């Protein structure tokens, strides 16, 4: 009997070393069939081009459902993050150890604010 179950989708992480290693310790680190990882550690030597290429790659991979990205890294490629409008993969901006979360910079939160009128509440 053929199985109709689909293989589950995974998380991708783009962030500083502490964030990525923390998620990897939680079990999210994987390589796809092309031997590409589902994470990118951003440090002082990582270029904006590398970050943007990884982000766009994660957005087009069929095995990724959610992209977690440190908010300060998302700020470096804000134009690419704002251009991503599909629901899968979902892009969630998260804080890092060194940089607190700022809701006014979150692209998803800003889109949601545009859907509601303050008078509705």
From TrEMBL:
SUPFAM superfamilies the UniProt entry points to: AtpF-like
Pfam families given in the database record: ATP-synt_F
Keyword entries, A-Z: Hydrogen ion transport, Ion transport, Transport
GO annotations of cellular component type: proton-transporting V-type ATPase, V1 domain
Keyword Ion transport: yes
GO MF terms held by the record: proton-transporting ATPase activity, rotational mechanism
Protein function: Subunit of the V1 complex of vacuolar(H+)-ATPase (V-ATPase), a multisubunit enzyme composed of a peripheral complex (V1) that hydrolyzes ATP and a membrane integral complex (V0) that translocates protons. V-ATPase is responsible for acidifying and maintaining the pH of intracellular compartments.
Quaternary state and interactors: V-ATPase is a heteromultimeric enzyme made up of two complexes: the ATP-hydrolytic V1 complex and the proton translocation V0 complex.
Record family assignment: Belongs to the V-ATPase F subunit family.
Name of protein: V-type proton ATPase subunit F
Species assigned in the record: Panagrolaimus superbus
């Amino acid at each position: 009997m053929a199985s109709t179950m689909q293989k589950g989708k995974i998380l991708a992480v783009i962030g500083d070393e502490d964030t990525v290693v923390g998620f990897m310790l939680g079990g999210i680190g994987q390589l796809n069939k092309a031997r590409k990882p589902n994470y990118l550690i951003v440090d002082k030597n990582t270029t904006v081009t590398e970050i943007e290429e990884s982000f766009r790659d994660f957005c087009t991979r069929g095995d990724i459902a959610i992209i977690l990205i440190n908010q300060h890294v998302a700020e470096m490629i804000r134009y690419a993050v704002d251009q991503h409008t599909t629901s899968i993969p979902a892009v969630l901006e998260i804080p890092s150890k060194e940089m607190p979360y700022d809701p006014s910079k979150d692209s998803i939160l800003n889109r949601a604010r545009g859907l509601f009128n303050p008078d509705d509440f």
